[in-house]
Model the fold of this input.
Amino acid sequence: MQALAQHAWPPADHLPDPVDAWSARDDGVLRIAIASDGQVIGAQLYQRIDSTQGWLSGLRIHPEHKRRPVAALLFDDIIQTARAERLLILRHASDVTDDAVHRVSQEHHMRPRGTWLSFERTMDAAACEIGRSKTPLGPAATVLGHGERLRALSLLHASGKTLYAQDWTWRSLDAAAISTLAQDSHAFLARSGMGGWSLGLLAQHPDAELEATLYGTDSACAQSILDHLRRTACGVEAGVRMTIHVPQDSAAAAILGSLARRGEWRPLNEHAMRVWELELTARTESAD
Done:
């Protein structure tokens, strides 16, 4: 694996040391492809998110073996595993410029479920001083209450955005998921008088990291949620790192893209990421 990592992971990858990162996980299974000479020529991490959803990440193929169907073999193996575990959905994300992965995804009957951008910022003293100066949440932007959950879900369904990100895995945003986030006061909704809206969902990790998903059609609403997320980060502890995932066609993407050009936020990928999804139900039933 160390040899594969030296060849298949670029220095700018958001998993700069995948072997250590994957070895430390207890929620996934690393699947590898081995050549006849014993060399590891491909790898992919499979995670079972819950009783219905699985996630694939970190597909890497040794450059000398990219013309061989190594990726297809890894996909086949993991799809069989997911079916055996009675999962309903399997997803992964890939760089929008990676045509080879797109072909493999389509050959395995996966469909695209949106294109996403991810940004990161460490909330240092300067960032927090600016964040604290922002106006607190007003009537146009509030913590999502019980009565607003279905309304928020309907807005997302109408816009075609029904996934959210947590720990770099994209998951179904259904009534149960949004209720859990709302109960923890980790869901925020902003609405304008002209029908515009923005929704922010927040996850906190134990290692001083915050991760948010931000949606919406209205720039002012998205800015209100973004300001609130920054204040939240500054209230956790000094130097907390925040990652925000946004649909590429959202108002939040335009705002964060502008802030990245000014050096305030850092894009985490050179290109946007496309999320792919495979529904396993029908095929699982037919296989039985």
In short: Confidence is low (pLDDT under 50) at residues 11-16, 283-288.
